[in-house]
UniProtKB/TrEMBL annotation:
Region forming the signal peptide: 1-25
One Pfam family of this chain: Palm_thioest
Taxon lineage: Eukaryota, Viridiplantae, Streptophyta, Embryophyta, Tracheophyta
Keyword Coiled coil: no
Annotated keywords: Hydrolase, Signal
Classification via InterPro entries: AB_hydrolase_fold
Domain of life assignment: Eukaryota
Protein name, per record: Palmitoyl-protein thioesterase 3-like
Keyword Hydrolase attached: yes
Length: 308
């Protein structure tokens, strides 16, 4: 081959590779909620819908076997498994975005705050996340569809702050009774640590990591009957000792004392408090398009380079 021709071939290949590179967008992962799995209709479809609409690669990350694990494995362990999985996924090594549904949000925050050596998380879109805890856990009547319902009921009947429940029922890790805060801080094994609530045990690394998000989108469903109080999806909760009133996030100590960087993010204009019509996770197509998809498209890296 002529030398000149050879070099022009190289130039074409380089230009082509450059185009391929700029069209790669940031991948996302999807974390489902309780009594659910990546392969069920809802979650498989939702992940696919987000891929289709964003044009970004996306993966539903499964922990254990899905349904059973989501109910019975403590969240600390679930978050560890998610961390190991994410570290092994080459596609995510340059960073990724997260979309999480309901309880999956507690795994998501575990990934963001606790995952040593994990890739960075850029945008985090939270759908109906019980971020500040829940004060009510539906018993079997709310979970009839599950074959594991009876087992679940038997566990939580023994007391949600008991070691047994803490080690065997995932929701016990974010169960918070405002009139029993001492017990909660002593016995709950997940949320107090995740929210840096325990006075002498706050870890600034968790805060630094959470505060480094580019965008935090908190979606609340106006008719949500599963997350009680509903404001928990925006980090609002009852004040300590009071079961009657609910404080908006901005009036909680988690926010005013900035335990996990929520205030830092909000002050920087990086938190979107979104309220949509519908029951728990019942999100209209248009609301997905408006409030989720824009954060999964990476405009900067998909920008066309016209000068090559
Ligand atoms: C999957 O998503 C599409 C688009 O939103 C929707 O029309 C369809 O009903 C969904 N299917 C299932 C099984 O949820
Ligand atoms: C996603 O796109 C694929 C391929 O075009 C299509 O078969 C599928 O129905 C779409 N799914 C959803 C949920 O939008
Ligand atoms: C805080 O968390 C980081 C990250 O997991 C850990 O390396 C560090 O030892 C923790 N610090 C304290 C004081 O526990």
């Amino acid at each position: 081959m002529e030398k000149g021709l050879k070099w022009s071939c190289v130039a074409v290949v380089v230009a082509f590779l450059a185009m391929v590179d700029v069209s790669v967008s940031v991948p996302f992962i999807m974390l489902h909620g309780i009594i659910a799995g990546c392969s069920d209709n809802t979650n498989a479809n939702f992940t696919l819908l987000l891929r289709n609409l964003s044009g970004s690669p996306g993966f539903c990350v499964e922990i254990g076997n899905g349904v059973f694990t989501s109910m019975f494995m403590p969240l600390a362990h679930q978050a560890e498994i998610a961390c190991e999985k994410v570290k092994q996924m080459k596609e995510l090594s340059k960073g990724y975005n997260i979309v999480a549904r309901s309880q999956g949000n507690l795994v998501a925050r575990g990934l963001i705050e606790f995952c040593d050596g994990g890739p960075p998380v850029y945008n985090y879109i939270s759908l109906a996340g019980p971020h500040a805890g829940i004060s009510f856990i539906p018993m079997c009547n709310g979970l009839k569809s599950s074959p594991y319902c009876k087992k679940f009921d038997e566990i939580i009947k023994r007391g949600l702050y008991s070691d047994f429940a803490q080690n065997n029922a995932a929701p016990s890790g974010y169960y918070k009774i405002p009139t029993d805060i001492t017990m909660y801080l002593e016995s709950s094994k997940y949320l107090p640590k995740l929210s840096n609530e325990i006075p002498n045990q706050r870890n600034s690394t968790y805060k630094d990591r959470f505060a480094s998000l580019h965008n935090l989108v908190l979606v609340k469903f106006q008719d949500d009957k599963v997350i009680v109080p509903i404001e928990s999806t925006w980090f609002g909760f009852y004040p300590d000792g009071d079961f009657k009133h609910v404080l908006p996030a901005q009036q909680t100590k988690l926010y005013t004392e900035d335990w996990i960087g929520l205030k830092t993010l909000d002050t920087a204009g990086k938190v979107k408090f979104v309220s949509v019509p519908g029951g728990h996770l019942d999100m209209a197509y248009q609301d997905v398009v408006t409030h989720v998809v824009p954060y999964l498209k990476n405009q900067e890296r998909t920008r066309k380079h016209r000068n090559i």
